[in-house]
Amino acid sequence: MFYIIGGVATLLFILVIIVFKEKPKHPPSRAQSLSYALASPDASYLSSIIRLFKNLNFVLLVITYGLNAGAFYALSTLLNRMVILHYPGEEVNAGRIGLTIVIAGMLGAVISGVWLDRSKTYKNLCHPNRLIQ
């Protein structure tokens, strides 16, 4: 089974390398045409990454996402062990607690997104002068 999947993935990779071009002959829009004209030929992937990490907002986003994801993964990994330690035989409730955490996170993301969109306060969150006070 793994050989079949590997063969299909390799075939698709070879087709992508052969068939797809770096960019089309004719730009799909005026904006893309202007982008091609203004793009510097020495722009590299490494310079893009360096420019990203010089952006304070991006660095703060990476740090906060990393802390949030790390805390969630640690809690999810150890949740069953923590619940069973204090409440033996409650494996089902440990699963329910995990489900509650996931659903609360999804609802919180949707609610905060709708709130930021309606109140238009997302600009205040990303303004450089308001980040560090």
From TrEMBL:
Keywords: Cell membrane, Membrane, Transmembrane, Transmembrane helix, Transport. Pfam families: MFS_1. One of its GO terms (molecular function) is heme binding. Gene3D superfamilies: MFS general substrate transporter like domains. The keyword Transport applies. It is a multi-pass membrane protein. The chain crosses the membrane at residues 6-22, 56-75, 95-116. One of its GO terms (cellular component) is plasma membrane. It comes from the Eukaryota. This is FLVCR choline and putative heme transporter 2.
